[in-house]
Amino acid sequence: MSAADPHDYTELASSIRQWSRELGFQQVGITGIDLPEDEARLMTWLEQGRHGAMEYMERHGRRRARPHELVPGTLRVISVRMDYLPTHAQDPDEILQDPELGYVSRYALGRDYHKVLRRRLAKLAEKIQAHSASQSHRVFVDSGPVLEKAFARNAGLGWIGKHTNLINRRAGSYFFLGEILTDLPLPVDAPETEHCGTCRACIDVCPTQAIVAPFQLDATRCISYLTIELRSSIPEQFRKAMGNRIYGCDDCQLVCPWNKFARFTSEVDFVPRHALDGTKLIELFAWTEQEFLDRTEGSAIRRIGYECWIRNIAVALGNAPTSQEVIGALTSRRDDPSELVREHVSWALAQHAA
């Protein structure tokens, strides 16, 4: 299809699917821009304060469900997904059952997905631009006020499960999402329907009971929020439940029966780096700030900063079996320059004293 023939949008949509596969995406779908029900749910969630310290969620508000206000002229959302489950990572259940090791969410073990997907999406957008009369498009990878899961559902990529993650019948839920907002009136795909049924495995397994009802997540209770988004003190009521989870939490995905269909990624960028798929907490706790910066270069982990990284590990060490080695490591940071770190170290030491 040439730039001189911009009106054959069905042919263009077919080409977009081919290009997306060539760029390493496992699936692509196209949907419109109307999300009235999702917008209403978002506003209720915000009114309930379930976004916690994520003030950017409130700042953008309704705009997340209105892409035409974000990028004027938007008519369609092109949604893509890319699998991230690494083939060579240590077994997640084994890590969670060993309190001396630090658990990092599977999505963060390799290269920062924002960079990987954004680069591929930009190439896809360039191809679309070169073969159409588009005057407006913009690429997003969890980086702007877009209700990506709702658009992905409407584009047929999966349904939003009771844990509020997107689930695909043939690929589970271990995948990243990205979007291109475009002014092209492309034909839309049929939305996916919900297939959770009576299952409540994710609700029952959540260590902090963050899934307060089916399809309702209180982010302020979620370990992913507590270890990644929250920059202040972690509420004591959740610290024991965090166990050895030092960056994110996968429990709701690990028990989801649909993840028996999850597919391993072929992307070398998502291969675990620096043995973060199962390193001893004491070793991680001993990292200097420079070692943290060096070993998280190009990783999504770096965004939380060194202080919160040590804060999280201090909590995990408080939950670890008592030993001279653990107490010695914690004691070494009792006078840490960071008040935040000192507070969590003090709590951890108190657990062993008890």
UniProtKB/TrEMBL annotation:
Cell location: Cytoplasm
Active site residues according to the UniProt entry: D142
Phosphoprotein among keywords: no
GO terms (BP aspect): tRNA queuosine(34) biosynthetic process
Residue ranges annotated for the 4Fe-4S ferredoxin-type domain, each copy included: 184-216
PROSITE patterns per the UniProt record, alphabetical: 4FE4S_FER_1 (PS00198), 4FE4S_FER_2 (PS51379)
Binding site for [4Fe-4S] cluster 2: C206, C222, C249, C252
Pathway: tRNA modification; tRNA-queuosine biosynthesis
Broad enzyme group: oxidoreductase
PANTHER family according to UniProt: EPOXYQUEUOSINE REDUCTASE (PTHR30002:SF4)
Protein's recorded name: Epoxyqueuosine reductase
Organism of provenance: Steroidobacter agaridevorans
